Each structure stands twice: as structure tokens, then as C-alpha cells.
Amino acid sequence: MTCPQLVSVSLSSTQRSVRLRAGAFFQRGLLVLAGALLLLLGAVDTAQAQDKKMKKMLMQLQEMNQADGYLEAHRNIKEPLELLGGPISFTVEQNAGGVFVGLPDQRELDSDVFGTPEMPRAFTGTPGVTGVPVPFREVENGQFTQLDRPTPFGDKSMALPNGTMMLKAKDVTATDAATTKDEVKFKASWEDKEGNTYAVRCCEMLATAGPEFPTFGGVVTNHILHGFSGIGTPLMPTEYTYAAFWGMGEVLKNGEVVDKPRVVHGMLTEYVRTEGYELASDSEVTPTRRHFHLMVAPFMPVQGEHKFEHDNVSTGFQLPNGKELPFWHVMFENLNIDSQRGE
Predict the structure, then answer these.
(1) Do residues 77 and 58 share a domain?
(2) Collapsing DSSP states into helix, strand and coil, what is residue 58?
(3) What is d(CA 39, CA 135) in angstroms, rounded to the nearest whole number?
(4) Structural domain count of the chain
(5) Residue 216 resides in a domain
(6) pTM
(7) Is there a contact between 329 and 294 (Cβ–Cβ < 8 Å)?
(8) What is the pLDDT of residue 58?
(9) What are 122-144's pLDDT values in tens digits?
(10) Does residue 6 form part of some domain?
């Protein structure tokens, strides 16, 4: 048996140079790849850290909600007092005409309600429900300008035909409580240009006590809501409210229930739209006109907790971009209004 022959190969200077350059290039490539991987991992870590920081901030804002103490004093009251002067019964109807449907838009921020970057206001509570976090606000020339994301509250809307509504309600109970004598029967409908019918019905159950702001037993009359009031989202302007309710209802399309249960809020207020149907600032409200707002918001109360979480509404209504409208914000203006004091 013979041993394998060992062969010695002599490399030229050119070959050695090529190999050295190839090795150096390969090493540099490994370093670049490793650096890119570290940057990617760092970006992932940074995004996760930012997400964690944002969630912590939102939880803190919910815990800072200014109404918590007042609400806690009323939640378990079994025999709440009635309105001074006795119950108020009222009916609000629209029998014909169109409606205006609010579309997602970035809300301009009124300094009277939201303050300034140096002295911000209205930032605690669930974002969009009772406050607007400062990081969600765009800034220019030392002033807040607009929200950095679309909401149900802005200047964009569309007119839809065949709108009807009927609200029969009674305001008896004065404050939030565990029980209420307030009553609400509500139904509203409208159509799109293709002839589909959309509707909202309420209330299987009234919100007798609010998770983050007072609901006055479910129905309130002759009160200021929204804006600077701390009752409802500050993204709506401050508005004198002749009557309002909060309760659990359902959303329908062509007679079929598409979402249930949902929080339904309705209110008869002074007029808060300007030329071009833009949403007014506080200084632009028209006290001598009235209209009715229906809101089924993309939020639901968290079971067992005094806060809300984001939850889009199944409306069945398709926006021009092909996406589903995630809320109903519908305004009625051809109104018949009747009210009386007493049973």
C-alpha cells in the first residue's frame, strides 16, 4: 500500500493578492451584515419599547380621569333623588328629509378647550372618549393645530336621504346611580344612494352610571356637554344640551342586526356646525338653532372596569376607499320637538 502523494502548490503574487482582497471583502460583508442585523434588532427593540411606553401612558391617563371620585360616590346608590321640580317628558322626531353622516377626519383643536403645549388641557381618560393625549396633537408656532389621526369628529360629512327618527324619553332621576327611573325609546333610520337602509335602535338598558363621566341615570336635560365640560369627548364643541341619553342598543342594515350590543348616545343641542358644515369651535356655536346628534362610537366599556376600549362598530356602510365606516355619527335637522314637566 502506498501513501498518498503530498503535492506542494506555489501561488503567484497575483493569486495571493486576489485571495487577500476576497477575504477582506468577505470580512467586511460579514461586518456590514452583522451591523444591519444589530440595527434591525435595535429598531425592533425600540419599537417595542415605544409601544410599551405608549400603553403605559394611556393606562396612566385613564387612571388620572378627573371624574372618578364623583362617579364612585354615586355608582351604588339604590334610591337616587329625582329632578328638582319633577320629571321632564319629551319627544323629538324627524319624519322626512335627509341626514348628515360624519366621516373620519382630523379634528382641529380649539385652544379654549385643549389649551396650549405649555399649558395643555383635556388630556386624561380614555383617548377620544374623555380626553386627547398631548402626543396625539400636532403643533405649529407654539399652538396645537389638529389631532394627528382621524376620529368621528371633524369637518367631513356626506348627506344621505330618507332620514327618520323618533325619540320618546323621560328624565326622572337626577344623578348617576345603581338604579334609574329614566326611560328611552329610540329608533332612527336613513338610506344610502344604492337604497340600503341603516338603522339604530335603543335602549334595551340605560347607562345608569357612567364609566368615565356622568350619565345622570341615563337621561339628562338642560345641561352643558362636551368641550370644556368634562362630560363626553372634548372633540365635540361645548354645547348646551336640551336632552341627551346613553344606553345599550343595536345597529341594523336592511332590517338585519349587524352589531349588538353597542353604546348609543343621542342628544338635542344648540347648533354646532358652520359654513360648509364644518364642526364649530366653541366661539362659533349658534345658540339660536338646534339639531339632533346620534352617536354609536368605536368604543365599548371594559367589563368590571371604569374605562373604555377601542372597538369598531360594524355598520355595513362602505366608504369610498373600500373600508367599512367604523362608527355612526348622524345628524338630523328637520325636527319636531315637544316636552312637558310632570308625569
Answers:
(1) no
(2) helix
(3) 26
(4) 2
(5) yes
(6) 0.84
(7) yes
(8) 80
(9) 999 999 999 999 999 999 999 99
(10) no
